[in-house]
Specification:
With 128 residues, the protein is of the alpha/beta class. The chain is built from six helices and five strands, in the order E-H-E-H-E-H-E-H-E-H-H. Helix 2 runs parallel beside helix 3.
Length: 128
């Protein structure tokens, strides 16, 4: 299974965007858009209409939960996966309550991250 759709990675850390991009490319994604904060990310979502969004929770300018709300208000069918380096039960619940498909820790091992993304990617989940 591969995911060949367009992905949007919204994270304030360039090395995280690069790493997630590499993982997505290994799954077959060729179109990846990046943004460094929620404001840029929402603008990129509107402009590029990605198939999947990987969204950091903690960012300057606009955090991930607010960005998640904004994206889903704009497009209720958006597929958004939250990323974080700090997991609290409350943050995970906030993400789920606001419509995130999943919540992934940034330190998740690569193979596990790939398996999660394969299962959650819109194109692959429809094939299953």
């Amino acid at each position: 299974m591969t995911f060949t759709g367009k992905a949007l990675i919204i994270d304030d850390e360039p090395h995280v965007r690069k790493y997630i991009g590499l993982v997505l490319r290994s799954l077959g994604t060729t179109a990846i858009v990046e943004a460094a904060n929620g404001v840029e990310g929402f603008a990129a979502y509107q402009r590029d209409k990605p198939d999947i969004v990987l969204l950091d929770v903690n960012m300057p300018v606009q955090d991930g939960i607010e960005t998640l709300k904004q994206i889903l208000a704009y497009d209720p069918e958006a597929a958004v996966i939250m990323l974080t380096s700090l997991t609290t039960r409350q943050t995970a619940e906030d993400a789920a309550d606001n419509g995130a498909l999943h919540y992934i820790r940034k330190d998740t091992p690569r193979d596990e991250l790939m398996a999660i993304l394969k299962d959650l990617s819109p194109e692959t989940s429809e094939e299953a």
